[in-house]
Amino acid sequence: MSKFIYIYKGPATPTDQFTPEQGEKETAAWGAWMGRIGSALVEGGAPFAGGTALVDDGSTAAAADLTGYSVVEAASLDEAKALAEGHPFLSEGKGRFSLQIFELGQM
């Protein structure tokens, strides 16, 4: 089994800006997805709270539109993709959000 990182990309609303109803709905959606994949979820992850990008010429730039991460365990990239089925981050259906999946290599 390998570990895969899911990196969430898109204009997600910070959780501190949710109404109580939105918070309950999002928590339930994430809980349902996490419950469905069970032990394949290695680390639930966290939302990103802001950042910057350091450039190799010594300057800084705006950070990419990345909003959080999770780590799953799967036998293959295809299996890691299948685990993302029904993921709440991909529920809008307007093409504004994506889930980037990378296998974590060995050092």
UniProtKB/TrEMBL annotation:
Gene3D superfamilies documented for this protein: Dimeric alpha+beta barrel
Cross-referenced InterPro entries: Dimeric_a/b-barrel, YCII
UniProt cross-references to Pfam families, sorted A to Z: YCII
Residue span, YCII-related domain: 14-93
Family: Belongs to the YciI family.
Protein name from the UniProt record: YCII-related domain-containing protein
